Every structure is written in C-alpha cells, then in structure tokens.
Amino acid sequence: RRGKMAKSTQLIDNEVFRAYATYTAIVLLKMMLMSLVTAYFRITRKAFANPEDTASFGKGESAKKYLRTDPDVERVRRGHLNDLENIVPFAGIGLLYALSGPELSTALLHFRIFAGARILHTLAYLIPLPQPGRGLSWAVGYSVTFSMAYRVLKTVLLL
C-alpha cells in the first residue's frame, strides 16, 4: 500500500495516520500548555498587558504599575510564538505526509524526532539552556517538517 493515498474511511485503521494523530496531539497540547505557563509567569511576576487584568492588584493609578513587560514573561511568550510558527506547519504538512503513504518506520521517525525537538526547544527556552541547544532543537524540528514536505511533493509531483 506504500505510495497510495489513504481513503478517509480507512484513516482510523491506518497506522501512519494514528502515529501522526498521536504526535500532533502531543505537540499541540505542549503548545497549549505554553498559554498556561505564560499566565503563570504573568501572575507571579505581576506583569500584565491589559488594564482589566490588573484589577485584582489595585484600582486606578496603583494598578497601572502592573501594566508592564517582564523579561521572564517575554521569554515564555517568544517560546510560545516559536511553537505557533513551527507546530502549525508541522500539523498541516504532517497530515499531507501521513496521507501520502509513507512507510510506518519512516513516518514514526519523522514524528518522534519533531516532537522531541519541540519539547527540547521549550525546555531550552524556559530553563534557559545555553546556545546552541535551542537553535539546534529548532533546526532539527524545522528540518523534519521540510523533509516531510519534500517527500509529499516527491510523491504527488513525482519529483
């Protein structure tokens, strides 16, 4: 069945699609957790972007001091933004890749490496770990998405 597009009625029985669904769910949940981490840092650092978010800490002029940026909050936000820039393309390209009929072992390698790279990238951002750790983990994940895109194009366009 290699190289044949999967029928939508067979997706749940398709091991590659199930692997895709599993690892995509993992990285999407990780990305969603970054929202909670951002909220945690905002609350513990008392650094808010919107006036209504400062209401629990005072009124009027006393609350304005909480409308500020904080380096820790901004670091978490940049990590979350990086997730959005990388996990969303992975989800779309990964779906096309899963439907293009790859071997299960090759697909699992792509999905696992991407998920691991994104988790390492987040840890490197939050701890923070010295470079080139974060840069390498980003590059590995990006390369995986590029590899899947190339394989989709090769299958579909017969490159």
Describe the structure.
It is built from 5 helices and no strands. With 159 residues, the chain is mainly α. The chain has a single domain, classed as Four Helix Bundle (Hemerythrin (Met), subunit A). Helix 1 runs antiparallel to helix 3, helix 1 packs parallel to helix 4 and helix 3 runs parallel beside helix 5. The longest helix is centred in the N-terminal third of the chain and has 31 residues. One of its GO terms (molecular function) is glutathione transferase activity. One of its GO terms (cellular component) is mitochondrial outer membrane.
CATH A-level architecture? Up-down Bundle
Give the amount of beta strand, in percent.
under 5%
Distance between the termini: 20 Å
Structural class: mainly alpha
Rg, Å, rounded: 20 Å
Number of domain units:
1
Low-confidence stretches: none
Q: Helix-strand pattern, N to C?
A: HHHHH
Membrane topology: Multi-pass membrane protein
Subcellular location: Endoplasmic reticulum membrane; Mitochondrion outer membrane
Subunit structure: Homotrimer; The trimer binds only one molecule of glutathione.
InterPro entries: MAPEG-like_dom_sf, Membr-assoc_MAPEG, MGST1-like
